[in-house]
Amino acid sequence: MSLNKIEAARGWRVRSTQDLAAGLFMIALAGLALFLSRDLATGTLRQIGPGMLPKAFAWICAGLGALLAVNSLRYNGEKLSGWSWRGVLFVLGAAVVFGLTIRGFEIGPLKVPQLGMLVSGPLVVLISGLAAEDVRLKELVIFAIAMTTGCALLFKYALGLPIPLAPWLLGI
Amino acid sequence: MKTLALGLAAALALALPAQAQSKYPERPITMIVPFAAGGPTDIIARIVSENMSKTLGQQIVVENVAGAGGTTGITRAVTAAPDGYTIAMGHLGTFSAAPATYPGLKYDPINGMQTIGLAGGTPILIVAKKAFAPKDLKEFVTFVKANADKVNEAHAGVGSVSWTTCTLLKGQLGVPKLNSVAYRGTGPALNDLVSGQVDFMCDQIVSVAEQIKAGTIKAYAVASAARSPALPDVPTTKEAGLPEYQIEAWNGIAAPKGLPKEAVDKLVDALDKALNDETVKKRLLDLGTVLPTKEERTPAGFAALIKRDADKLSPVLSAAPKQ
Amino acid sequence: MTEMFANLSLGFGVALTLKNIALCFTGCLVGTLIGVLPGVGPIATIAMLLPITFGLDPVGALIMLAGIYYGAQYGGSTTAILVNIPGEATAVVTTLDGHQMAKQGRAGVALGTAAIGSFVAGCFATLIIAALGAPLTKLALLFGPAEYFSLMVMGLCFAVVLARGSILKAFCMIMLGLLLSTVGTDLETGQERMTFGFPPLSDGIDFAVLAMGVFGFAEVLRNLENPETRDVVRTKIGRLLPSWEDIKQSIAPCLRGTFIGGTLGILPGNGAVLGPFASYTIEKKLAKDPSRFGRGAIEGVAGPESANNAGAQTAFIPLLTLGIPPNAVMALMVGAMTIHGIIPGPQVMTKNPDLFWGMIASMWIGNLMLLIINLPLVGVWVKLLQVPYRLMFPAILIFCSIGIYSVNNQPVDVAFTALFGLFGYLLIKLGFEPAPMLLGFVLGKLMEEKLRQALIISRGSFMTFIERPISAGLLLVAVAILVIALLPSMSKKRDEVFTE
Description:
Helices cover 59% and strands 3% of the residues of chain A. Chain A is mostly helical. Chain A folds into 2 domains: 5-74; 85-158, no CATH class. Chain A has a two-stranded antiparallel sheet with strand order 1-2. In chain A, helix 2 runs antiparallel to helix 3. The longest helix of chain A has 23 residues, at 52-74. Mean pLDDT of chain A is 86; it is low at 1-6. By secondary structure, chain B is an alpha/beta fold. In chain B, 45% of the residues lie in helices and 17% in strands. Classes of the chains: A mainly alpha, B alpha/beta, C mainly alpha. Chains in contact: A-B, A-C, B-C.
């Protein structure tokens, strides 16, 4: 994997898809930041405006990204590897479901009632558990119930945190 | 598994008949404090709610919902179901200043919520570094006006009590563009005031009293009608020659609009009883708090206070240089 | 000197009553148990547990809180070592080598080293506070915005050294961290910056949310991808406690870490954050074979953990002597004291000597408790690693979700964490290391605030950073670090710059 100068000198082609993607990613993020901060005043050194540092940081990010992309054409490096969509979907989905159901949510036509931890807790464990390739459903269900009970006792009763348990059922 | 199911069934059996009656309160009440635990508003909320719980016969659970200068928590509280189980402890900033500071505010403190009553007023002091030239408030006013380009004012961030009250002061002095140094919270601002990096600031008595007593900073005046028992040597703005600068960082309780009268009455009564309790009184007075008058403890009196301060602050805050 | 011992004995007299020892023990235990939950760092732990101390008398409450604080600090390190999730900024460094040690079956040794290192640092820091608390206060007052900005610049230069792979990629991450730190309402003008007009973003990105996402969730995703690597941790258990050889290797880093962390901890505005990073940098630079760092070097745990604990302790100095909280945790302590009717100020020491010295004594007792509680617990924590991963990560997820929710009682924070999980996974795929990004993020907020303050006070003159001697000195150190870090890679080891 180490680099030597002979390789570096030989022609321009993509030698590291990972670095190329990383460089483009930095440039894209910098572009987004520049777009979002376009209306913020840059100000002067005497009175720095809200936009000065975000814009400066974004330009540096873009510059570093460009350097990274150029280097990916000159030096050998890692290749991009595949994504695990299953993990992304279930693990991150589980956390989002928790956020949506714990106190209810309303965006436009989408309405979720306030379900509380007794529902959100098992949901997180069950949904995220599906991400494992060696998932065992029965074990997971028991684990979900045990974890939720444990968390309810710990957070709600031992620590007295104001986390809703099941407002639609228990009123708390 | 079985016990859990049994427990749920039992809870359900208990919950159902209870819903048929309307004996408020029949379950714990959530008091939303729109700031982190341990801040001045949180402290007052916990002192007052502990005693209110006793009167109401149900626990008041304090829930800290911090964010966006307190407006996140208040939004959640006043848009909740008006059943008396969600109330909020807000302050000068969230109820009077917020409409001018946060253009996209999702609640209307004047017409869109049910006020309960004032829990306490916290005097505001004008303080300066020890070595700052002016000796008293009159000199301070002249000095600041004459040296507007040299003086540095510190505050705890846009939307904070210290920013709100200092912006009012600068507006009244006619120097709105004074050099203003923003800090993240009172602590760091106070640190730089003690070490003399900045010249003056305005803040709540609870944050600065100990420093004044120890002589690490000096106080010009307290912006209340009467001197504070905690700092009897500090004159009021009226005595010291700036009578128009009158502002307090009060804290008060509000609930969603449309609350049943029964719930309002019970909450008002519980607040009044709490404020008459000797222990509560002592703890609030130790913090330098001014106890509310009989009038201010009523929904109407508190609403009038919110409106009065909103009218005072809105023009200054809207005109404040936010670029 | 005699006065100091008289004071300390007064303190121990207060702290060593049966009730206060029990409170200290309970505090440490509860703090450890909550702090060890992934996603719950010291600030969250203290904010959550603050209310349970309200019923106690002031001294008891503060002693218990101090216990909770130390317990939470150590609990946070435990999570960093075991599951690679830092609960707060200072634990980020511990993930670098601590988690690698766990992967090599040396989790017990890492935990033991962290506990012993913390204890040693705690003992020294307690003595420092007792002997020099009052004079050291002056240090806090020497640091104005200009000095602080230079300190942050120096800190960012440390971050380059944290890089495990390509330095260019580490630079990218630092800048990205700085960029992310500017999201949210502008402190000075109140304008919203890069928030998409979305209210939950108006306070900026929460550290816990970002760290949990890019470390916690992304790590889960990475592990799910490689079933063979995730089980490495649980097949090997190895020794439970450090061997004599380990301890010998750790002593010097531990003492250096104590000194660095203790000094930085006194500074206002969360100087303690830099302690572990600075300690790690120095250990890496002093090591005969720097390439061991990031691959499970014990010095990379001992030094930063000592620095962390020493800083955690000396951060009390500005609070106790000036009455000014230097960071968020100390601000919570102010709240706790105020609620008990003690308003912190310069006079606490003379007005409430029993409270002042009792608290200092309880710091030492708290550190001792931590050792007593945690050395036996090391076995339990390590055993936890044997839980099959298919159950481990749903457990991490439910704890993270509840923990993140409970910090601000905001459901949307949990969804944001998931979003940053995706972001972190993307970073892993692109070959970026998240640690320098977190440092950039933490320092970025402070850096911008201090830069703007310094320039407003100096009326726009950059000379202020060079004219002030302390500031100039710090900038010189920053330049020196950069040169040392970049020179070898620029010349002979050039290949290491651009490849793994």
